[in-house]
Amino acid sequence: MNIGRKFAALEEKVTNLSASVFSELQGSKDVYMNIGRKFAALEEKVTNLSASVFSELQGSKDVYMNIGRKFAALEEKVTNLSASVFSELQGSKDVYMNIGRKFAALEEKVTNLSASVFLELQGSKAVYKEVEAEIKKLQASIINAESQLGFVTASQSKACCPDGWVYRSMSCYLFSSSKMEWHAAQDDCRSKQAMLAVINDRTEWDFVRNWTIPTYYWIGLTDEHTGRWEWVDGTPFTVDHKEWMPGQPDDWKNHSLGGGEDCAHLHGNGKYNDDHCTRKYQFVCERKLG
Questions:
Q1: Is the pLDDT of residue 15 over 70?
Q2: Per residue in 44-98, pLDDT tens?
Q3: Which CATH homologous superfamily contains domain 166-288?
């Protein structure tokens, strides 16, 4: 049984080669895992082939010759694989050694960096303490400045605004408790060296209506002189309907008071509304300082 002997020799060769390879693989399991899988697959093929061979040997001579050819081809494959494996192993060793050298160099860099950072931190602590001290000084200065500003503002308000008036941004505001027609209210404000309030921007509008809600207050806005809405100091006014009551201004005339609605007031929700100037509402006077 020449094939049987060949198969036994081949099986021994594969087993020895497998043992040799896995011995080599102990150095770096991750790198050589692929090679191990190749040999495991090869061993499985040889084992399966062994069973197939001895089954086929029970048949005819032609089958026997065919098996001989298969084994010759298998022997050649194993020989080539052996050479390929050991070549790959040698290359993997070089890669592994190179990685080892790189890791050693990296370890050295980390050690040096750690020492450098530690020294840097020692110097930074002193600088940090100096900066912290300066920050505390600045904070104290800010608190002092805020305190002085509050004192000056309060003093200025008290000194420049009459009793009962409210100070804001270089203006004094009087929110009346009495009710008058629009023109009478304007005359009353003038008698106090003021005028009906002129609202220049959204922040001032928010400030004024914060005091007027939920009551109607006349302000210094009219269209009776030019047909266009403007403030009593001559400043033009651009109508933004989002700031007005719905559908306003409408110059409504069906009120039996004669004429239209030429004077503006702040509604109970703080929005603008036009109305007949003879209606009696509370009003806002504004006196500008400086």
A1: no
A2: 765 665 566 456 545 545 644 665 676 566 567 656 655 664 565 465 556 546 6
A3: Mannose-Binding Protein A, subunit A (3.10.100.10)
Residues 24-57: b if buried by 16+ CB within 10 A, e if exposed: bbeebeebbeebeeebeebeeebeebeeebeebe
Q: How far apart are alpha carbons 160 and 170 in whole angstroms?
A: 9
List beta partners, residue 283: 218
Quote the radius of gyration of the chain (alpha carbons, Å): 50
Q: H or E segment at 280?
A: none
d(CA 198, CA 214): 20
How do strand 263-266 and strand 272-275 relate by DSSP bridges?
antiparallel
Dihedral (Cα; 90, 92, 98, 99), 10-degree rounding: -160
Whether the predicted model's global pTM rises above the 0.85 cut? no
pLDDT of residue 160: 76
> Under DSSP, is residue 265 helix (H, G, I), strand (E, B) or coil?
strand
- How many other β-carbons are positioned within 10 Å of the β-carbon of residue 75? 15
Name which of 243, 252, 258, 161 is nearest 209 in CA terms: 243
**Contact at 8 Å (CB) between 253 and 135?**
no
